[in-house]
Specification:
- This protein is α+β, with helices and mostly antiparallel strands.
- The protein has one domain.
- Helix content is about 20%, strand content about 35%.
- The chain is built from two helices and five strands; from the N terminus they run E-E-H-E-E-E-H.
- It has helices at about 20-30, 70-75; strands at about 1-10, 10-15, 35-40, 50-55, 60-65.
- It has a three-stranded antiparallel sheet, with no helix packed on it. Strands 3-4 form a two-stranded antiparallel ribbon.
- A hairpin with a 2-residue loop joins strand 1 (about 1-10) and strand 2.
Length: about 80
């Protein structure tokens, strides 16, 4: 099992890899300073996204356990796919 962190900011979800300790600190510092941009890294490669955090903005953290299934297995698993009539 792997842990994925979910950051919910003003109703929008961002999924983040571990560790998030430094990111939490940066967000707290931005809010304590009266507001500021913080770069939130992507779950997989890329530049991330800059989010403006300000006092009073709803921010929620949660952790989700996900299975470590190889990509090939997930790509072949179509579940209960509707094929039509």
């Amino acid at each position: 099992m792997a842990i994925v962190n979910r950051l919910t900011v003003d109703g929008r979800d961002y999924f983040l890899p571990e560790p998030v300790t430094e990111l939490k600190q940066k967000i707290l510092e931005a809010i304590q300073a009266g507001g500021g941009y913080v770069n939130v890294p992507p779950l997989r490669g890329g530049p991330g996204i800059d989010i403006l955090f300000s006092p009073g903005m709803p921010v929620t953290w949660s952790q989700i356990e996900v299975a470590d299934a190889p990509v090939e297995e997930r790509a072949d698993d179509h579940g209960d796919e509707f094929t039509g009539i």
